[in-house]
Amino acid sequence: MLPRDANALLLLHNPRCSKSRAAKALLDARGAAYEERRYLEAPLSRAELADLAQRLGRPLRALVRSQEPAYAELGLGANASDAELLAALAEHPELLERPVLVCGPRAAIGRPPETVLELLA
Question: Across the 121 residues of the chain, what is the mean pLDDT of every consecutive 10-residue run?
Fold first, then answer.
């Protein structure tokens, strides 16, 4: 489950992604204590994904990388329902936008990477 404690930071990280590596480096440079979850190895459940969208305060679609091959292969598009998007994200974690920093009831997508620093203030 995603952390609930307002002081607990969780970085949803893909070490192969330059933006994700940059966000991690920014957190490290500031001495932030955080847990790292490599979501490709430990995918988020549908419940966690729905919770994450709520913490972001954005539509579920904001979490989806539409340029990934799996997006087209699954036939997802502008009319895909939240249920379809949740199922796709749960089964194909490479579709998850990255990086994401979770801090208690809030979360931020690190695009640009500096966006994650807003949660440290």
Answer: 92 97 98 97 96 95 96 95 97 97 96 95 78
